[in-house]
Amino acid sequence: MRQILSRAGLCLLCLAFTPLFPCAAEQPNFLLIFTDDHGYGDVSTYHASDARTPHIDSLAADGMLFTAMRANCTVCSPSRAALLTGRYADRVGVPGVIRTHAENSWGYFNPAVPTLADELKRVGYHTAIIGKWHLGLESPNTPNERGFDFFHGFLGDMMDSYTDHLRHGENYMRRNQEPIEPTGHATDLFSDWAADYLRERGLQQGKPFFLYLAYNAPHFPIEPPAAWLEQVRKRSPHLEEKRARNVAFVEHLDAGIGRVLAALKQHGLSDKTLVVFTSDNGGSLSHAQNNDPWRDGKQSHYDGGLRVPFLARWPGRIEPESRCDYAGLNFDLFPTFLELAGVPLAKDLDAVSLTPLLQGQSLPRKRDLYFTRREGGPAYGGSSYEAIIRGDWKLLRNNPFSPYELYNLKDDPQETRNLAGSQRKIVNELLTALRLQIQRGGETPWQPPAR
């Protein structure tokens, strides 16, 4: 029996398909492409967009497009901590952004928790991160100390400029532990370094690899190369300058991803590699990024801040042009990769493996989806604010001092009708669930130990 999914269906079902679970000798490679502040509407496979992303779109054409995935947080560090541990970010010490200045840093990545790289190394994988780390600047939380055999990229949060690669005037570019001073646009550097890494892996076909390619783009400052901006201006002269710059920035990023995918094919690795593309949170509206059709953007618990593009390709294993509407979270990749690599899963994970979906099966939608962020400044005061989704209901607030809002996502996906006043029973049930999550997160310190 074989049923192939249409673009309007749920998830592919193909019982006659090649078994998805490889034996130990067939462990797949993993290439995880993780962009920064990349809006759902800035990937053109989702709907008509003034931004053209043919290389990202090709992953949907050749694989599976997920339509309802969310990031684990509305900002960078917590999403990355959750992604690499399969646990909610506050449970691993990262409820907020880890910054270069201690007085404005709101997390400490718990060094006792194994990362995805740690777990894959145990079963023979070569592990690498190219690009943005953003989970610590010093020991014990540098990439080589957290499971990665190879690091070539940027330790910090955002760059002051994509061409000088500094943050607050300091150099955080590294090759493993060594400071480096490369020249060129950071997006080009990361793409070229990833292509170089894949060439090396192609020469060592017997050893599987995990490459975590984490771009800074399209996080502000919005700095497309001049030629890319001119190309967009000529093609779309009606675009406002801020939007034109962002479109060019995204299209330049897409071209870099295209070079990486080409290297994967050139070195004979495509058929053996599960490629996943997604982002750490929604786009920044103040920088003209596009999260359509969802409300709001980065920093917000409305879905514009949480819904992210999510695409998976694995030739011969995932049906081309398939589509899935499962409502999961980015950190579900943690148990997915481990399961496919043959690694037993820890019992305390919050994440759920997506492997059944890739196999053409389904997953129950019974778990709550929990979101939290802690932040400083007068708008947040060092406190946290949370959201929770249970079934069709979503309870949220967007700063620690506002009342909670309640939305029915099935009837009101754009979150325009606040039902908190008329659905007090549901509000109270979700508040109870939130308190339990907050208590669990509170067991883990989120500041480094005193020295």
The helix count comes to: 10
Mean of pLDDT? 94
Note the gap between the termini. 63 Å
CATH class of the largest domain: Alpha Beta
Architecture of the largest domain in CATH?
A: 3-Layer(aba) Sandwich
Tell me the number of strands: 16
Largest sheet: 10 strands, mixed
Proportion of beta-strand residues: 15-25%
Q: Tell me the overall shape.
A: globular
Structure description:
The protein is α/β, with parallel strands linked by helices and 451 residues long. The chain has 10 helices and 16 strands. The protein has 2 domains: 334 residues, Alkaline Phosphatase, subunit A, CATH 3.40.720; 73 residues, 2-Layer Sandwich (Arylsulfatase, C-terminal domain), CATH 3.30.1120.10. It has a 10-stranded mixed β-sheet with strand order 8-7-4-3-9-1-10-11-2-12. A 4-stranded antiparallel β-sheet has the order 13-14-15-16, with helices on one face. The protein has a two-stranded antiparallel sheet with strand order 5-6. A hairpin with a 2-residue loop joins β7 and β8. The termini are far apart.
